[in-house]
Amino acid sequence: MPVLAVARSSYNPSVVHHRTTDITKQYFPIDHLAGNIDLFYNGVLMIPQIVDNTGTLSNTSGIYYDFQSGNATTDTGVNWSATTTAGTKCSHIKLSFTLTLDDWVSIRSY
Which has the least CB within 10 A, 11, 20, 83, 110? Predict the structure, then answer.
C-alpha cells in the first residue's frame, strides 16, 4: 500500500493524515470543493493553485504552487483534469512535487 491513512476526523472541517510508504504517490483521493482545502506537508502549509470562480484570476503565475484540485478516475491519476474555477466539486488532489519515504501529508477540507 503506497500511502497509509492513519487518522481521519468526522468533524467539519474534516482532516485526513497520510504517511507515505511509496515515493511515487502524487494523487490523494478526497472529495472537496476547490479552494476549500488545506494541505500540510510534514507540518508545513502548502500553496494551492486556485483560480477564481470565473476562471480568470489565479493566486499564482506559472508553476509556483504545491498542489492542484481536480478530478481523476483512479487514485493513480488516470484521466486527471485540474479544476479551472474555485468552488468546483473535486475528487482528488495532485501534488506538484515528489514525496520521500515516511513523509506526512495532512489534508483539511472545509
Answer: 11
pLDDT in tens, 42-75: 999 999 987 766 766 666 566 688 999 999 999 9
Q: How many helices (H) does the chain have, and how many strands (E)?
A: 0, 9
Lookup: cell for 62: 506559472
Residue 61: alpha-carbon gap to chain centroid: 18
Place of cell 508545513: 44
Asked if residue 103 lies in contact with residue 28, where contact means CB atoms within 8 angstroms, the answer is no
23 C-beta neighbours (distance < 10 Å), count: 13
Model pTM greater than 0.85? no
| Strand ranges of the sheet holding 37-41, from the earlier edge strand across to the other edge | 3-8, 14-20, 104-109, 37-41, 44-45
| Complete DSSP assignment for 59-108 | SS-TT--SEEEEE-SSTT-TT-EE--STT-EEEEEEESS---TT-EEEEE
Question: Judging by DSSP bridges, how do beta strands 104-109 and 27-33 pair with one another?
Answer: unpaired
